[in-house]
Amino acid sequence: MESIGATPHLQPLVSVVVPAFNASPFIERTLASATSQTYRALEIIVVDDGSTDDTARLVERVAANDQRIRLLRTANRGVAAARNTGIEAASGAYVAFLDADDLWHPAKIEKQVGALDRLPDQWAAVYVLHHFINRDDELNGLGPSFFARGYIYARHLTFKYIGNGSSLLVRRQAALEIGGFDSSYAAAGIGGCEDLDFELRLAARYCIEYVPERLLGYRKYPGNMSSNYVRMASALSEVTRRSLAAGPQLSSYAIRSAILAAHKYAVNQYILAGNYRLAAASARAVLKADPGFLIRLILRSSAGYAKRKLLLAIIGRERLARPCSKPRFQDLASASRPEMPKSPRMRRRAARLAETDAALSSAHAVPVREKAALESRV
Q1: Number of helices and strands (H, E) in the chain?
Q2: Bridge partner list, 146
Q3: Nearest 10 degrees: CA dihedral of 234, 237, 241, 242?
Q4: 14 is a domain residue
Q5: For residue range 326-357, what is the model confidence (pLDDT) as tens digits?
Q6: 269 CB-side CA count, 13 A
Q7: Model's pTM, two decimal places?
């Protein structure tokens, strides 16, 4: 492994790990969002995972103007191995992960360190919420608005609060204790959910905090990893299977809830991929436990169709097809605070899963003074 770059001029507290593979279209913007953090005590470790484009050259160019940036170059082994290389090279007490096409709000790290620094070591990590962004950094939708804190293992299996690989800031020691990221998913051809696997192993042993603000621009576009819908469905199903097999013993309700959530995710992914045979197979598994799922899915699809028809009627097809400018993530003056979803079904499910988490936290000896934080805020 080859290391390029100068020693950071600050003693780092937070090590930012940026795994990068053929990231030349976005890497400069991603690094700009890291170097612009209001929290200045950073080292930024870019792990070039065998790129064949200009990624390394662009990183070196940015690093020439900011000594906190360090470039490590490895053979192509996948995002999990690249993140592990960054963790091993990190000198900070905290590690934050930033995918090479995502963006951070300037206050992200400052708010995360402030949230985690006041908590005992049993609290291992803190996450934020996100906006979706497109290739041009424009806002393209909101990520989920539900979140929970404390011991959240059972709830996270169902609700997947964190949602992507650029949200989490974790104590480095905790990341090492759980063995880092699992590279076997990529080796099996189902990479894409390694971050969820890492989060679940972390949540099985530790409490997790949140900052309820949208401090992350999570990029989704044709061709990136999260747009490979069939692979993402397979990856999440495998993460769920492994977690249920190796994680803490869950209640039968929590197990059914996790499996049901994986099937629902698969239905949506297969529909996006246009693979209706696989979508139907997953839908049949869902309908046995949740007969109303198909109705809700149809209603959501119908609502989107009706909305487009209404817009066509109001403004006309030509104006609807005309490109319109959207706000850019970098132009947000402040992070938005999401409103919690008001679904009674979701709240009831979260409450039942919180009971499982409370029992598990007792078995894992989570400090008594922190148990008040175990309630869900879904």
Answers
A1: 14, 10
A2: none
A3: 60
A4: no
A5: 899 988 877 677 766 667 888 999 999 999 99
A6: 23
A7: 0.86
Tokens standing for residue 131:
């906006």
Place of tokens 């990183």: 59
Higher pLDDT, 2 or 136: 136
Position 59 in a domain = no
Looking at residue 254, its pLDDT comes to 97
Q: Which two tokens stand for residue 145?
A: 């608005």
Distance between first and last Cα of the chain: 44
Residue 163, token pair as written in the block: 């949602």
189 within domain boundaries: yes
Distance between CA atoms of 336 and 295, rounded to whole angstroms? Answer: 32
Among the listed residues 114, 81, 89, the one whose alpha carbon sits nearest the alpha carbon of residue 215: 114
Which two tokens mark 225? 């990893």
Q: Are 3 and 70 in contact (CB under 8 A)?
A: yes
Nearest one of 284, 257, 249 to 378, comparing CA atoms: 257
Closest CA to 56 of 46, 45, 64, 44: 46
Report the number of distinct structural domains present in the chain. Answer: 1
DSSP assignment of 130-187? EEEE-TTSBEEEE-----B-BS-HHHHHHH-SS-STTS-EEEHHHHHHTTS--THHHH
Residue 251: name the closest of 157, 355, 361 by CA.
355
Q: Beta strands of 166-304 (E only): which ranges?
A: 169-171, 207-219
Range of the domain at 318: 102-378
Distance, CA of 137 to CA of 377 (rounded, Å):
30
Secondary structure of residue 105 in the 3-state scheme: coil
- By CB atoms closer than 10 A (0-12, 13-18, 19+), residue 9 is exposed
- What's the token pair of residue 45? 């470790």
Cα gap 299→291, rounded to integer Å: 14
Residue 372 CA to chain centroid, in angstroms?
26
Q: What phi and psi values does residue 248 have, to the nearest 5 degrees?
A: -60, 155
| Total residue length of the chain | 378
- The reply to whether 95 falls in a domain is no
